[in-house]
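Aim 2 progress update. The chain analyzed this quarter is reproduced below.
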Amino acid sequence: MNNYELMVIFTPVLSEEDFKAAQSKFTAFVKDNGGTVVHDNPWGLKSLAYPIQKKTTGLYWVMEYSAPSDFNEKLKIQILRDETVLRFMATKLDKYAVEYNARKKSGVQHYAGTEKAEA
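Predicted structure tokens:
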């Protein structure tokens, strides 16, 4: 099982219920294919750096999950079939990124090794 992070930008015309339904559809897809969802974070409506399909805003959603390595191709097919998705990006996380995300979720402000030693 590898750790991944998926960022999806949905079309901004979705209602709150449709946005939540799309999130639950992808989390259920991960679980149905033998993966586990570690954390998901809906960012909400954000402006885009450049227009996509004549839209200047999008609904952002980030999900951290662990799944088998062959799962991402199945997920890509499901995302491309969804008309509400403007863009997506799946990234494989190394052990340092997983540790960083865990500390960030727990609310730790200062990370070990980032403070300067006083002489």
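The CA atoms of residues 35 and 67 lie 4 Å apart. The helical segments are 16-32, 71-81, 95-106. These observations will guide the mutagenesis experiments scheduled for the next reporting period.
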